[in-house]
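Example record used in the benchmark description.
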Amino acid sequence: NRKYFHRWVMEQHLGRQLTSDEVVHHRDDNPQNNDLSNLQLMTRAEHNRLHRFHCRRRDRDPITGKSLRIS
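Model output (structure tokens):
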């Protein structure tokens, strides 16, 4: 049973195994950065909401907030 390193780091920090509903998020979006300060424990639902928000944000101009989509 393979375990991802970022999950192992969080388990060591918490002193317990993660549940199947727990996700370890990389705050800087760099999966190679497994420093504890870059890892955030979230539920699967929280993680999905976070990434839906980021995907929507990429569709908008960062300054004006206006949509960049071409109709």
